[in-house]
Amino acid sequence: MAVxxxxxxxxxxxxxxxxxxxxxxxGEKQRGMQKDSMRKQEQAQKQAIASAASQKAxxxxxxxxxxxxxxxxxxxxxxxxxxxxxxxxxxxxxxPGGLGKNTLLGG
Length: 107
Prior knowledge:
- The protein is mostly helical.
- The chain has a domain at about 1-70.
- Helix content is about 75%, strand content about 0%.
- It has helices spanning about 1-70, 75-85.
């Protein structure tokens, strides 16, 4: 009976060690998966930051291009006033060419 009891104790101790070993293995595997997940998350965050910076730069370039394309109204007014002061105040319709013969209004 003593042998059976000691055998049962040895078997339960072995099963306990196997359970502990399996638990350690699962813990290590989970820790590795967490590290991999953190690495992937850091990489995604760096990509998002780089993408945001790129979009900001593109937006700034588009705004700068739009600002360059804005008409210079004050220069146009000064030019028109300069021409008017010299006596040149005609339009396309009242200019030297007039309407011409090839237009619907010119006949």
